[in-house]
Amino acid sequence: MKNYTFILFPLMFSNTFAQTNLYASPNESSDIIAEVLPEHELEMQSSDWVKVFNKTTNTEGWAKLSELREKLNNGGYWEFSYQSDQDSGQKISYKPISENEYKEHVLEMRKSHETMVKKFEKVWLHTKHASEVTENK
Which residues contact 35 (CB under 8 A, 6 or more apart)? Predict the structure, then answer.
């Protein structure tokens, strides 16, 4: 079985994060074994079984995420989103795409990255110039 690890780095930090409890089992009536604070490093694991709604056939059931990823990896792309609503949880989407759609998507990403790099270069040159001015004083 393959394991997938996702590392997310928040772009903004907020001091509004309150502690949350770490339970001994996935049940709020189980023992609280620790507190989780913003300065704690965390590793999370979810079950391999996922609830699936097939939009094409309008059917709902359960499947193994590891098998879905293995079997569907060549014909589409995966999208991960994390909801802030406690009841929504994590949403994982799969959408099959054609080779042409894939190529268009890659070209769009390339253009977007080129734009970001250009903006970064401007900021980098500005900060470099500002640091040179500061050093010469």
Answer: 19, 20, 21, 22
